[in-house]
Design brief:
The complex is a heterodimer of chains A (about 290) and B (about 775). Chain A is of the alpha+beta class and about 290 residues long. Chain A contains eleven helices and 14 strands. Chain A folds into three domains: about 45 residues; about 110 residues, Uridine Diphospho-n-acetylenolpyruvylglucosamine Reductase, domain 3 (2-Layer Sandwich), CATH 3.30.465.10; about 110 residues, Enolase-like, domain 1 (2-Layer Sandwich). In chain A, a hairpin with a 3-residue loop joins strand 4 and strand 5. In chain A, helix 9 packs antiparallel against helix 10 and helix 10 packs antiparallel against helix 11. Chain B has a seven-stranded mixed β-sheet with strand order 3-5-1-12-9-10-11, sandwiched between helices. In chain B, helix 14 links the parallel strand 18 and strand 19. The longest helix of chain B is centred in the C-terminal third of the chain and has 28 residues. By secondary structure, chain B is an alpha+beta fold. Classes of the chains: A alpha+beta (about 290), B alpha+beta (about 775). The interface between A and B is medium-sized, with 22 and 25 residues.
């Protein structure tokens, strides 16, 4: 493993300053489950890591009916996964959390770390995109809140400027009329990167779909929405025929690549299958 | 060994019991010392610079910057290491290998091959120094597929060997009259088959530590299955007598066959230690276990067989091409074993086989559990299923009709002992009520209409020992100490299978002492008797017999000494559970400790005996019955249930044998469905050399496995009829899955791995 220097930040201001002053090849060190692997496998050149785990105030989880669910940057995947609130209100997020890595990895990894790595195949991104989550960003001059679908600019790339740090995520409240699902497709059942991941978040009023968001993972440069498929479904009763047509549309809306995990054609096929299945599963909430 | 040799029957006290392995506690607590745990004062760390080109001549190599880097103590290149042509797989009695390797060469033959080595005061510094080594290459055209490599005018990878990129001359086997056979056939099946490049992915990456002492003696710790071969070839290449090379191996984290080569890093580690006069450790990264380790030979097979309408197999014509990668390694052995194996499994009098092994500019393929037979039996067993389909027969019935039986000539050339395979098949058919399973209602479950279920059978047989390719010898030394405890000295490596426990059980049983009183000393070439290595499913069979022979001798000596002390004749006494007693008067007894210890002017004794055994071969058998669920929308195949029925002769340690079977099934599910080490066919670059994109099944992917072990065909060549079990399970599971897939969706696959994409594509072509 290549050598790097370790810095412990005491405050957000300190961490932000270190990120700016230490120059390129400086990265935040949170759960470390991706960063350390990348260093070991020489996928990322790292000279400095800035450990933010001692910074106070980043470990909170709160929920209220108006603001929704908010969790800090240090909240681990495992901690969120095991919250009954998440299980009940955000089954799509819960399913993504439970499918990330292994139990050991989930006990170290953070959701915010998974977001900031900005991998198109990251498990936690599709449900947060489908739910319309917001990203809280700290900088020494101002704070800003960015809708998660605007946060990513490409594979591994985000809107974060030098010295900016994500402090937490807010997921809007989940009403009783909502149904959610996340389905992951991989080559095995655990310790797997998704070949395709599809998250759905929908709302039903009097049997009619009043809103739906479909987020597609690992089939584009970032996690994608399927806006045309969504539009085809809004105002329908989500009957089998409508869902099938929308799933076909989602296949057209994605832009997958071929690699050692799967071909582009197969990924596109799976977008169709998983979109249909995810909508069906989300509807089971009302059954 | 002949069939009429009786197998001793007795009431077993220790053999056949799952005694507690004496290494489990230290392993689960992390106390067990593996080679990677070794730290010596002043130890340096070695790293290898690897080529990022698949075929090239090295024009120049400049190490000056690396040598000047703070902390670097030595750098070696092809210009500074001894230029000795040597074997990759140094089986000492095998004549089939070609010497085709140098420690470092001025030529690169595969992407990832080592071109230089660095020793530094830390692993990190050594790693950083690699970037400072400047290599200028003259690129050569590469060949990445055997069919390209054998074309006229293809670039030659080696100057040695038979030429034309062949690793060895084609292996040809002819029995009976092939033309007559096909003339008698009512119908003929013909097909091509292809196997991928699975990698064993043992838990412990290759690692070694070298240390030279003041008398110019090399002590060498290494994770190897073949410590005496490492000693022999290190001594040969370094120009040392065997007394000046001591190889040590204690615990190992697996090998699966792939740790029986002499690796480039092992030479380099020894040379760096010599150069710096300091101990040096070299440990592979996981990436290196792929590029510089050994994988299974990809194989292309053409198979044509003739059948009679009653199901009789009358002709088998088969051509196999194994891809050796850039060096010979085990290519010759794998080709010979994999090809000759096709004389058997299903009876056929008229057989024509041709096996080839071809160099390509890809990472080296070597020994891996199932040694060439995984490939050839995949083809044989699937085509047998196809014949059943053509005949409208139950595949179980057709396989039962054709499986080898006692007296048939085995691939090794001697008659098969026992109806093992027939009994395994029949047992599975009965236990599962196979006929009912075949005739079950196949309507999909309305709740999961996209799921199809299927059942398939895969058969296999595999030899214990590498005879006749290698004439083997097993050795054991047994000592009875003056306190009545017993020490077994063996050269057999402990890969983690529990082999030493089985050997201790055999000694305790034969000698008549408690299992707990037998200690095993292993893995030190200066101390233990010579050993050929732990491979070919033979440790229990081969070394177990040697240990039994040695134990038999010391037992006689113990009885003689006790008789003297008891003042009776040796015929009047017996020895059991650590006690010598009069047969006629069991209350008159003494412990082995009392027999061995000093008394009334008689000094204490230490009785020592050696056992040496030169076996032929026995065959173990298995039939695997496998259920799969197939998602027809995603193409995902899930193995739900496996009933493996194995005949392994006498079972020494049931839980260890079961563990071998379950582990083999796990690896076999892997190579059949998900595992494939992929090499780019244009550049020779590795595309998934690591566990991120090389996917082995994990516990959650494992089916229910209901292992059945029969003792139906004990072989007189092994201790009380024991035979091998290590390789068998990985052979039968593959075709059982492929046949189950056909049963589920009516599509035949002739390759592995069978990916979800393959399933979907085939379903679409079928118009389902």
């Amino acid at each position: 493993m290549r050598r790097f220097d370790y810095h412990r930040a005491e405050t957000l201001e300190h961490a932000s300053r270190l990120l700016t002053e230490l120059g390129d090849d400086t990265f935040l060190f949170n759960g470390g489950t991706d960063l350390l692997v990348e260093i070991r496998e020489r996928l990322r050149r790292v000279r400095n890591v800035v450990d933010i785990k001692q910074i106070p105030g980043l470990s909170d989880i709160t929920y209220n009916e108006t603001r929704g669910l908010t969790f800090g940057a240090l909240v681990t995947v495992g901690r969120l996964e095991n919250l009954s609130l998440v299980r009940q209100r955000y089954p799509n997020l819960r399913s993504a959390l439970a499918s990330l890595g292994s139990i050991q990895v989930r006990n170290r990894a953070t959701v915010v770390g998974n977001i900031c790595r900005a991998s198109p195949s990251a498990d936690t991104i599709p449900p947060l995109v489908a739910d319309g989550a917001f990203v809280h960003i700290y900088s020494r001059t101002n704070m800003r809140v960015v809708p998660i679908c605007e946060f990513f600019t490409g594979p591994g790339r985000t809107v974060l400027a030098k010295g900016e740090i994500v402090t937490g995520i807010t997921v809007p409240p989940a009403g009783d009329n909502t149904g959610k699902a996340y389905l992951k497709h991989g080559r095995r059942k655990a310790m797997e990167l998704s070949t395709v991941g599809v998250a759905v978040s929908l709302a039903m009023d009097d049997g009619v779909c009043s809103d739906i968001r479909i987020a597609l993972g690992a089939v584009g440069a970032t996690v994608l929405r399927a806006p045309q498929a969504e539009a085809m479904l809004r105002g329908t009763r989500l009957d089998a025929e409508a869902v099938r047509s929308a799933a076909d549309k989602a296949m057209e809306e994605c832009t997958p690549i071929s690699n050692v995990r799967a071909s582009a054609d197969y990924r596109r096929d799976m977008v169709g299958v998983l979109t249909g299945r995810a909508i069906k599963q989300a509807l089971e909430t009302f059954a | 060994m002949n069939m009429t040799t009786p197998i001793e029957q007795r009431e077993f006290k220790i053999v056949g019991k799952s005694v507690k392995r004496d290494d489990v506690l230290e392993k689960v607590t992390g106390e067990a010392q593996y080679t990677g745990d070794i730290k010596l004062p002043g130890m340096l760390h070695g790293k290898i610079k690897r080529a990022a080109i698949a075929h090239a001549r090295i024009k120049s190599i400049d190490v000056s910057k690396a040598l000047a880097y703070p902390g670097v103590k030595a750098v070696l290149t092809h210009e500074t290491v001894p230029r000795v042509l040597h074997y990759g797989s140094p089986h000492p009695r095998s004549a089939s290998c070609t010497k085709d390797q140098y420690i470092l060469d001025h030529k690169v033959r595969f992407w990832g091959e080592g071109v230089a080595a660095v020793a530094a005061i830390s692993e990190e510094i050594a790693d950083e120094a690699l970037d400072l080594i400047e290599v200028e290459y003259e690129a050569l055209p590469g060949v990445f597929e055997p069919e390209d490599a054998v074309q006229l005018g293809a670039p030659l990878i080696h100057e040695v060997g038979p030429g034309g990129n062949l690793v060895l001359d084609p292996v040809r086997v002819n029995r009976g009259d092939i033309d007559k056979g096909f003339a008698e056939a009512d119908f003929v099946l013909e097909g091509t088959f292809a196997g991928g490049r699975p990698h064993p992915a043992y838990m412990e990456p290759n690692v070694c530590v070298a240390d030279w002492d003041g008398s110019n003696k090399l002590t060498f710790w290494t994770s190897t299955q073949t410590s005496f071969m490492v000693r022999g070839i290190l001594a040969e290449v370094l120009g040392l007598p065997l007394t000046k090379v001591r190889v040590l191996v204690d615990h190992m984290g697996g090998g699966f066959g792939a740790k029986q080569d002499l690796f480039q890093h092992e030479f380099l580690c020894a040379l760096l230690a010599k150069e710096t006069r300091r101990p040096v450790k070299m440990e592979f990264t996981r990436h290196e276990t792929f590029v510089a380790g050994r994988s299974r030979h990809p194989c292309k097979i053409w198979l044509k067989q003739g059948f009679k309408n009653d199901g009789t197999l009358v002709a088998r014509d088969m051509k196999l091409v194994y891809d050796s990668g850039a060096y010979g390694s085990h290519g010759p052995g794998v080709t010979i074993v994999g090809t000759t194996a096709a004389t058997s499994l299903y009876r056929c009098e008229n057989v024509r086989l041709e096996g080839r092994c071809v160099y390509t500019n890809t990472p080296i393929n070597g020994a891996f559990r199932g040694y060439g037979v995984v490939q050839s039996y995949y083809a044989l067993d699937i085509q047998m299923d196809e014949a059943a389909e053509r005949l409208g027969m139950d595949p179980a019935e057709l396989k039962l009709k054709n499986v080898v039986r006692a007296g048939d000539i085995a691939p090794s050339g001697h008659p098969i002992i026992g109806h093992g395979l027939e009994i395994c098949l029949k047992h599975g058919i009965d236990v599962l009520d196979w006929t009912t399973l075949r005739g079950r209602d196949r309507t999909p479950d309305p709740k999961r209409p996209h799921i199809r279920k299927g059942w398939g059978i895969g058969c296999e047989m595999h030899g214990s020992s590498a005879y006749p390719g290698i004439k083997e010898q097993g050795n054991a030394t047994v000592k009875v100490n003056e306190d009545g405890t017993v020490t077994l000295l063996t050269g057999a490596a402990g890969l983690g299978t529990g082999a030493h426990t089985a050997l201790a059980q055999i000694v305790a049983e034969e000698l008549g002492v408690r299992f707990e009183d037998v200690g095993v000393i292993h893995g030190d070439t200066d101390v233990v008797p010579w050993d050929i290595g732990a491979f070919a499913s033979h440790t229990t069979y081969l070394v177990g017999t040697a240990a039994k022979m040695a134990a038999e001798k010391v037992r006689a000596a113990v009885l003689a000494r006790a008789a003297m002390k008891l003042q009776v004749s040796a015929e009047e006494i017996d020895l059991s559970e650590g006690k010598v007693f009069l047969i006629a008067e069991p209350d008159r007894s003494m412990t082995v400790s009392e027999a061995m210890g000093p008394s009334r002017g008689i000094p204490a004794a230490n009785i020592v005996a050696n056992g040496t055994y030169e076996p032929t071969k026995s065959y173990s058998f298995a039939a695997h019955f496998t259920e799969v669920d197939i998602d027809t929308e995603t193409g995902i195949v899930e193995v739900k249930r496996v009933v493996p029925v194995h005949d392994v002769g006498r079972v020494i340690h049931p839980i260890a044998a079961q563990g071998q079977i379950e582990g083999g099934i796990q690896q076999g599910i892997g190579h059949t469905l998900t595992e494939d080490y992929v090499i780019d066919k244009k550049t020779g670059r590795s595309l998934n050399a690591g566990l991120v994109d090389y996917k082995m099944p994990l516990s959650m992917d494992m089916p229910d496995i209901e292992t059945i072990i029969l003792e139906a065909a004990p072989d007189p060549g092994g201790p009380w009829g024991a035979k091998g079990v290590g390789e068998d399970p990985i052979i039968a599971i593959g075709p059982s899955i492929a046949n189950a897939i056909h049963d589920a969706i009516g599509v035949r696959f002739h390759h592995y791995p069978i990916t979800p994409e393959d399933i979907l594509k085939a379903l679409r072509e079928k118009g389902a």
